[in-house]
Amino acid sequence: MDTLRDMEYHDGKGELQEWDRVYDYAYYNDLGNPDTGPKYARLVMGGSAEYPYPRRGRTGRAPTETDPNIESRLPLIMSLSIYVPRDKRLGHLRMSDFLTYALKAVAQFLKPELEAICNSTPNEFKSFQDVLKLYEGGGMVSCFLTALCSRV
């Protein structure tokens, strides 16, 4: 058993690969991006004597150029292929569900935005019936007028 652990032991350095079985922990030291500028630098969460937690699985990414205590960030596309222990990975069914719901959420957001952009007559009435609906109950103007008339 000890020889198996020695084979899987990492010294806490280097990027982890998919086939590695390492359950090494690190602090949240990748929240900021100090290479972009001092405005984007963030403190490391965890690791103090008073608050040793929270911790996360170690990724082994290279440090940033400006601060060696902070891990560099990955581009969004590359962040989908980071090391995750096997038992923490989403199975193919859960991953497809996750991607389906994410795509559905994006579509539900984009549809009204695209309709608003493609509308050739924004803030205009489409027909005379739309104008009449304002005064025939149920419209905002008719509610306002009824409330105004009741006060006078």
- The quaternary structure here is single chain
Strand order of the largest sheet: 1-2
Shape: elongated
What are the segments in which pLDDT stays under 50 over at least 5 consecutive residues? none
> What is the arithmetic mean of pLDDT?
76
Q: Classify the helix fraction into a percent range.
A: 25-40%
Biggest sheet overview:
2 strands, antiparallel
H-E order: HEEHHH
- The whole-angstrom Rg is 28 Å
Work out the helix count: 4
Write the SSE topology.
Layout: H1 2-8, E1 25-27, E2 55-57, H2 92-118, H3 128-135, H4 140-151
Antiparallel strand pairs: 1-2
Tell me about this structure.
The protein is mainly α. It has 4 helices and 2 strands. A two-stranded antiparallel sheet has the order 1-2. The longest helix is centred in the last third of the chain and has 27 residues, at 92-118. The radius of gyration is 28 Å and the shape is elongated. The N and C termini lie far apart (89 Å). The model has no long low-confidence stretch (mean pLDDT 76).
